[in-house]
User: Fold Neurexin-1-like from Limulus polyphemus.
Amino acid sequence: MIRFSGYIISLVIVFWAATCESFILEGSPTSYAQFKTWNGSLSFEFQTNELNGLLFYTDDGGRFRYFFELKLVEGTLRLRYNLGEGSAFITVGRGLNDGEWHLVEIVRHVEKVSLRVDDEIKNRVTPGRDFAFENLSMNSFVYIGGLPARYKSKLSQLALTTVFFEPHFKGAIRKVIYSNDEASSRRQDMIAFHGIRNNGLDHCNYRDPCQHGGTCISTDSGAICDCKNVDYEGNFCDKEKSQSEATFRGVEFLSYDFKAFGGGEPITSLSDTVSLFFKTRQPHGMLFYTGDGDDFLSLSLRDGGIVLTVSLGSGSLERVVRPSRVRFDDNQWHKVLVHRKVREITDVTSFCHLSIAVDGVYTQRGSTAGTFSFLSSKELYVGGSDVNSGHLGIHSRVSFVGCLRKVRFLADSLSMDLIELASTGSKLVRPQGNFQFVCHEVEAADPITFTTKESFLALSRWDAPRGGRISFKIRTNEPNGVLMYNSGATAQGDFFAFELLAGHVYLLLNLGSGSVKVKATTRRVDDGHWHRIYLTRKSKSGRVIVDEYSVEFFTQGNSNQLDLEGPLYLGGIGTSPEGRTIPPELWSGKLQYGYVGCMRDLIVNDNAVDIALYAQKQDSGSIRPACHTSPPQCDSQPCLNGGFCTEGWNRYLCDCSRTNFTGSVCSKDATTLSFDGEQYMNIQIPEISRTQAEDIRLRFRTTRPSGLLLATTLEKSVNHLVVALESGRIKVILNLGDGNKLLHVGNRLNDDQWHTLQIIRRGHNLVVRVDSETLSGELVGHQMTLEFQDLHIGAYIPSGIPVYSPQSQTRDVPNFIGHMQKLLFNGDQFFEMARTGQLVNFQVTAKFGKKEEIVHHPVTFKSKNTFLGISQLKAYSTMNLYFQFKTLEPNGLILYNSGKEQDFIAIELVNGHLDYIFNLGDGPKKVRSNTRRTLNDNKWHAVTIGRQSLRQHTLMVDDMIATVTSVGSNVHLDLDGLLYLGGVRRSTYNNLPKLVQSKHGFEGCLASLDLNGEIVNPIADAIIPSTLVSDGCAGADTKCSNSACANKGVCVQLWNGYTCDCDMTSFTGPTCSDESIAYEFGSGSGIITFNHPLDRRPDTKTDLLALGFVTVSDNAILVRIYSGSSNDYLQLEILEGNIFAVYNLGTDDHPIGELSTRVDNGQYHVVRFTRSGPNSTIQLDDHNVVTKYPNGKQLAIFNSHSKIEIGAKKNMGSGRLEKPFHGIITGLVFNGDRLLDMASEGDPRVTVEGDVELLVSIPYDLGQVRPSDSQMHQPLSRFAHSGDDLVFSGAGSGCFDDEDNCGVIVVEPGDDLITPIFIPPTHKPRHPTPNPSSRVSQRPVEIRHSDETLCDDEEGCGEGSGIEGFVITNPPINYYIPEKGVSISQEPAPSASPVPPQLLPPSSTTSYWNVVNKGDAQVKAWNASTTWRPINYISTRNPPSVYQVPIPDIPKKDQGLQKPNKKPKSSADNTALVIGIIAGVLISIVLIALIVYKLRNRTDGAYKRNEGKDYRFEPVSNSPALLGGQQQANGALKPTEKAHRLPKKKDIKELKEWYV
Assistant:
């Protein structure tokens, strides 16, 4: 058969070539003629009577998207081509469908293309990357008249995709001439075809069989019908075809995108027609859009009208069709027809005509002129769009909801039915979403989900005085809830409600003359499926239909009008600042059962209500869009401590009634009240409560067989409910006005075990349950309402028993003795509310038991710069927030949720206290925790935040309650966005409300997060997770210890670990074990200089200097610091082999040094110098700390640091380096700045001169032998120790040579030198010749403890204590310097001696003092066995924990112990000696106690300084003992007070030890 068909085709081709020069194309959707590939110019002739048709097409096979397309458009020839730089157009001729032969010629020459029709020719120069179109092996065939049908599934192979949808040419073609190889142009032979006529007989002229407007096409076999553009199908368009329609639910849309379609060319047109049918209930929605950038055509619904917008680059033109009293969102079919046509007036100016017609009646027209021509339809959307597209023409971001039918787009000759293309699987039009290509009834709006029982929506009231209609759908699996409620306007109590009780739907209606309650279902509707509820009422009668079940109703009385006021509430009863009276007939409202489930399709009086839009505006937190089902929630076993889990609607419900716990997951220890027979609790209801349904639960434990549990009373009413124990049984008495109803249940309930009591009443039905025993009964009579105003628990109030009380019924029932828990009365947990401060108008004398806070779901925030984002907090009208936290940090943002407009909520730690800040729209309010101590104590703290009422807000932290009242008209918290835990994004801190002080997040543990009844697992529920938040709360992974930091580094405890402060170690690294930057100062001398910028020269009251060094030089300068505005200076040097520091603050030179050890031994040494005001310390290696307290009038500020020299002093006049250092200096730190590190990094403030070299590693001694850890037994200084001299380096005056003209201080006798001695030293001291250049103190040494008072350089200061020398303290320690502003209480004293206070941890010490006779000096050395614990600092800044070594107290002047007299040794003497020692100890204890008492009451000193110029740095723990306390000032000694002198050399004969 195939061979036969090929034979016929060959015969036809031979016949056409041999007998004639033309061929006729029938113009059917499948007709075409195929020729070989084209190269060079092309020409042919055509003859037709049709306005439109594809004449010629070829491309490069889709490789580079090069193509040529020639077609007839409205009788005009249009050539479109692309040679690499986009489409170009040439239009020639007019009225070419005249049935005459017309010659067409296309000529290409590089970038120039010419189109000729008959005698008319037009040229177009188009720049391009590649003008070659001669790749015959890759180019497609030449198609004339149309494309083969096989391209329908291969659109991507076409460079111009839309060419396939062009109408096929109908007419005659002849003389097809072009070149297809290297040869010249010649007539081409047809190689394939379809729809070529063998004869010219026009069958359609004789008989047109096509019906309903179908197009007739003549073929050799007769007439056929093209039904493409009509709504019929079949051979003769005689059968009505199914409509091309689709349902849009707001998430579906149709689109094509030629930008994404293989880079294909868009549709271009001068005239367009858009036609469609639509049906919707929505007033807004996008119908149609097409365009490219600024050029577009858009059609949309806006406020029930049709809006057409057209933009062609010269401004937009908009037409709106919105007739008065006519809306198009009426759920009826409407037809829209849009026409646009561009007419070219000149080569640069065009005129656009625009028209729109709706239903053929409502019409708008318009026109505009500009420099536009074609509309480029690169993108097209129907029914919606990609939200990220950002098109200018898509004015409506709301997607269409409804049905669309026959959406047709006609662009010049191109015609497409977009829905039909999408439904048939065309690759040009893509459906997005789950499409149904039929029209279904679309809901009024998206469904919504009420997620909590407190959530509700407030709509406009139901206006139905004489009658009306309401319909809606619900879906839930929870049995109870208020579905709908509208209160009345009259005193008779008009109201309307729908409620769900025990899975059944009830209608409640009161027209003012009595209420009616209609049960509208015969089977439960809490099955998780959609159920439709429909109500229609006319006057006093009506009908309720639920699904297929219908019930009629009639109202009572004569009233036939429903007068309602206020909002129509959905999902609940709403809130009101003035309170709301709930009809007793609305049982679910009285029991506080809010609806939890889905709702949709709300139609009120035939008007659709977009409840999703209401929810978005009102309570977007607890009311969510859409309606989804979640997997079973109880599978994860969320209920703790034996709670029973039941499935709710996308949530779990924990029944904790049989446990000692409460809360959403039974995680909180229940509040327990204890009664002793006289104690009670009384709750007064503000307004009389009237109920027809009660839910009461109570747990109790007692050993007494009888006792009153609870009772309700109302003055002058016999209504009451009494629940009591009687003979070990529960006795319930209920009187509603028709007599008592009595029930007994249970047995032996006084067994000192917990029992659970539950009372459930619904109208006349009463059920009493104790543990697992249940008893039910039915009330008799017509009364059904219980009225009460007082609730008595445990006992009646001792006085004021109402006249009409149930006392007669319980005359023999004593007061309750025992314990109660978990009283729940109609949704109110009274015990918990009273405990957390959320209950008003109550009295209680019963005792609250101690609660144990149970921690669950803890997480750790490891950084202050992290956070978690979870779902929005649901706190629109209620607030019940609970969590626990533990931290060491005093500040940090714990919780934050922004809101609409000004609303927000924030919880933060500020200086160790908790702040709760919120804004309801009337201005922010803040309430602070009122705990006695700060909360950053690394202990768990429980936080409860609630609302007593709409205006009363409470914050309870660890049983301490603080309240605040909000004012203004706003009572709802309108939140929006995510709830942030532990912090917010770093960029958000600057935009937080002003009352929120946090600049970083929370670092510590959070646990037990309960947000309005929803338990949150922060990590599992996080929408924005963080890797810096981990499960559990283990605290720091590592903690400080004595061995945590090497080389005497100070361990600082952090929340998530610790860090080492290495500033005073000469080392660096995480544990102070890494070598610091080191420089070697060679024999050629060198210096390193650091210069402070002129505008950044600090003034300092304290200085810290530390460094390590190795040298054999016995005289050299290590460091010198200059002042830029005065003679202040500080110098660290080696003098005669010993280390010294000298400083001057504007008065005297103050030297301090270590004389017991030489440092010019080629070994590694570390020196630490600290200054606080005029006082200072110095420590070498592990030796004792040497302290200095200058006497007399002293200044405290080192003014204007300007320059620091390292390794020498540079003579400014000669430039010579004086006293150069030769050796190695490493790890130099001055006031926190690592100067050598700065030098190695090329800091521009640092210069390096001379023979100075950066070292790779440090030789710790000249023989490469590192010294031992302890250097306490170094050789003594070669300075004399037996004389009265005090060695002074002379560095303070700057005298280093004879040119400086320095004077010599005369040495006076009688002065003492205090030198450190390690216990037990017994060596005889050496007596070298005194250095004649040494300087001797003018005052004797006195050891004194006092608070110091610093003074500024500009103030006069009194004289000091007169201490001038070196004081030995304890072995090496770690120190802490508090920051400015830290206050330490002090005791007033007659005189203030400048001995610094010390921050000592509590310790237990056994110590003794040795009095050593050393020449003329008497030296006291301390030896102790000490245990201690870290000190707890009390500071508003809460500094980190610092581990310290204790410092022993230095004895006062009145505590100096005299040398005992020598006695002959005997047993009596020994006894006397023991007695004397004991007596001395007792006296010493008394004296020490008195001194401590005085020190505790000593007042602070004061000083004045320029704080703006002070040099400030973070607390450093490596400071001397004198800096461990408060910042001090120079003290003043009274003139009458004289310094105490130690015994002279002549008074001491030999060395003795005295033990205390």
User: Anything to note?
Assistant: Residues 23-197 form a domain with the Jelly Rolls fold (CATH 2.60.120.200). The radius of gyration is 49 Å. The chain is about 5% helix and 40% strand.
